[in-house]
Fold this sequence. Notes:
Layout: H1 19-24, E1 31-34, E2 40-42, H2 50-58, E3 62-65, E4 73-75, E5 80-82
Antiparallel strand pairs: 1-2, 1-3, 3-4, 4-5
Amino acid sequence: MTDSTPIDPSVPPSGTGCADCEAAGGWWFHLRRCAQCGHVGCCDSSPSQHASAHAAASGHPIIRSFEPGEDWFWDYRTEEFAEGPELAGPQHHPLDQTVPGPADRVPDDWPDRLH
Length: 115
């Protein structure tokens, strides 16, 4: 890991859902994983946008999608897709986890609440 590519491939994800939404009883649309510390946060379309808030607060600028079938990285510094190594597993949230999620906290009007 270097300052120009702050990625630690040995760190596992912090959990299966957005850590901040879980703590606050919220819900998310899609999930993103910090490539440096493993913090799982919700995407910028989600109501609380915890992944980008984590990047701003921590100085950890690179995330990776935590959605099944997606392996892209994003660099908040450049606002562009980035390259990165294979990260410690799991690579995505559980396949039976709903999107949006978690199912019991998603409001009926969820599409109207996306950014």
